[in-house]
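ligand=uridine-5'-diphosphate
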Amino acid sequence: MDTKTSQSHIFFFPYLSHGHIIPVIDMAKLFASKGIKTTIVSTPHNLSLFSKAIERSRVSGFEIGVLAIKFPAVEVGLPEGCQSAHMVKKYEDLQKFLKATAMLEQPLEQLIKQHRPNCLVADIYFPWATGVAARFGIPRLVFHGTNFISQSVSHHLMKMDLTQVSDSEPLLIPNLPHEFKIPGNQIPEFMKQESELKRFGQSAAESERSSYGVIVNSFYEIEPAYADHYRNVLGIKAWHIGPTFLCHKEIEDKAQRGLANSIDGHECQKWLDSKKPSSVIYVSFGSMVKFDDAQLMEIALGLEASGQQFIWVVKKDEKNDHESNEDWLPEGFEKRVEGRGLVIRGWAPQVQILEHVAVGGFVTHCGWNSTLEAVSAGVPMVTWPAFADQFHNEKLVTQILGIGVGVGVSNWARFGGEKVKSETIEKVVKQIMVGEEAEEMRSRAKKLGEVARKSVVEGGSSYNDLNGLIAELGILPLLPTLN
Ligand code: UDP
């Protein structure tokens, strides 16, 4: 690519899910802090959900634009408002959703024609984006929202015959740095046979290989063997520039980086300020995993029986008017746990909570953003994965890094998640919060958190990779940098 003397301009085009859009906004801020003009392309609905987060990122004078393209939900048979992956409730709709995302190719092409960015960072869920960028002679970088370990496993899985995989005989993934065995029930059914979703996964993997390279929201020291494997064995060019959320320095920026919070950030801070260090467990399952009332009831009972202080974030689908929205709470629960337990219904300022000194554990579905946020905050985890990369992230946390205990689920479940009884929840919550083993995990987590923070400051592995990427693209910083 030619070195540009005018200001460079990157288009960011994230997948339509909160877990992909949030780190991309962080990433846009990071590149903007290096003097590069950035533009986030998304649907009007998603841009409006995150308008506050984008606005705050602009406050420091960083150039972050937005451009909207219409999402053809109705055209593919989805309800008008269905513009984000967390709103998809069944496989049939997932296929329609992916069909609608494929229809974004033309409008994206139009925007590139009009605005002439000199680089396109597009999500792995848009395999066709490599072709679009090629038509304009600009590099397409991939962002997949996950880490090296999970992408390495996926690339191997994609090439293996999965038709005979059983639950009782785990499948050994060959040539990985650790022994990696995956039971059949952790592989989605659509991967075990020819299917539209499998073909989509294969075309995404191919476009990852044929793109200019991959931006990974991770840092070298958390998965060195897999960063090397991905680059040197799988031969995919990649730069790790994370944890990207660490670009936020102010508490207000951390609190506002997602959707509008369902609790006032100051109120939450005050509640945590009144607690002793490492005495509160935070319980949250990201933006996509939602449990039914029976499972929520088990979580409530388990938290109560554990005797631990907690913040529990509950996300539920809208119910009909005649149905009560509170059937999932045991009678008198909030009264009984008053002062020691806080239930947040909706969206929580997660980074602000995890970074508070009072938080000493995290029950998580192991979404990569949540995992990285907990690692950076030095908080050990109870792992309760459901789907996507979450089982691989669990393995990293519990078996490789030794900073978590599993709740004991093993079934891949895109909708609903595997059930866990209150007695098990009580046991693992105590295990991560009290005792010698808990202290050891916390101490390891804190050390890793320090390494994570160092990786993004001058001389750190992610800092260097970001600068290396910018230099390679020939993008010149024109404004003062953040650090
Ligand atoms: N998040 C948040 N508040 C919530 C739920 C989620 O701030 O109540 C943020 C969380 O900090 C993370 C992202 O949303 O950055 C969720 O991404 P993750 O990869 O953990 O899970 P996903 O939602 O994609 O399953």
